[in-house]
Amino acid sequence: MKLLEDRILKDGNVLGENILKVDSFLTHQVDYELMQEIGKVFAEAYKNAGITKVVTIEASGIAPAIYVAQALDVPMIFAKKHKNITMTEGILTAEVYSFTKQVTSTVSIASKFLSENDTVLVVDDFLANGQAAKGLLEIISQAGAKVAGIGIVIEKSFQNGRKLLEDAGVAVTSLARIKAFEEGKVKFMEADA
Ligand code: 5GP
């Protein structure tokens, strides 16, 4: 997605070996117009897949996911990272190791929001080693729902998340694929959409 790649080149900052900071438009301050365009591109890619729910993980997946849900006209569910006393009914959970925070946390979705009648599109902001997406796949499979694919805004293709997910038999659609950081500069490979 050229609009996204151009924005990454303009406003993204490479931190250390393998982190891209995009807090001015995606992970902290959010550019809703860009998110809306991202939503349309994912919706176009999955328009014939019979998607009934979009699933993401808090916090930074929520912004793109809500616009994907709008474009597909289905609900968006975000997995919660902290147990909450209002989550009194059945909950589906998975353990997720966070690449950026370097801690393992239990993520959960109330079972009433997913069933075997659902076909899910998973959406997340970044794909690094695939742990966040893998946790979401576990939760979705506990619900007996189907997964049509995983939509990623920014994939770091030099890490092994894509392989992990494709080996699990799930299609990955990434709007920007970073093949390397070279001297602090982002180098792209061809994206999926
Ligand atoms: P994974 O679970 O695929 O290893 O990592 C994906 C999660 O880690 C994403 O949900 C995202 O929040 C975070 N993440 C991974 N790499 C980056 C990065 O380079 N920059 C930012 N801002 N977040 C990242």
How is the topology of this model organized?
Blueprint lengths: L1 H10 L1 E3 L3 E3 L10 H14 L7 E5 L4 H11 L3 E4 L11 E7 L6 E7 L8 E9 L3 H12 L3 E11 L4 H7 L4 E11 L2 E5 L4
Parallel strand pairs: 3-4, 3-7, 7-8, 8-9
Antiparallel strand pairs: 1-2, 5-6, 9-10
The chain binds guanosine-5'-monophosphate (5GP).
Task: Give an overview in words.
The chain has 193 residues and is α/β, with parallel strands linked by helices. It has a single domain, classed as 3-Layer(aba) Sandwich (Rossmann fold). It is built from 5 helices and 10 strands; from the N terminus they run H-E-E-H-E-H-E-E-E-E-H-E-H-E-E. The protein has a 6-stranded mixed beta sheet with strand order 4-3-7-8-9-10, with helices on both faces. Helix 4 links the parallel strand 7 and strand 8. Helix 2 crosses helix 3. It is globular. 40% of the residues are buried. Guanosine-5'-monophosphate binds next to strand 2, strand 7 and helix 4.
Features:
binds guanosine-5'-monophosphate, six-stranded mixed β-sheet, Rossmann fold, 10 strands, 193 residues, alpha/beta, 28% helix, two-stranded antiparallel sheet, 5 helices
Label the CATH architecture: 3-Layer(aba) Sandwich
In DSSP terms (H or I, runs of 4 or more residues), the helix count works out at 5
Low-confidence stretches: none
Helix content: 25-40%
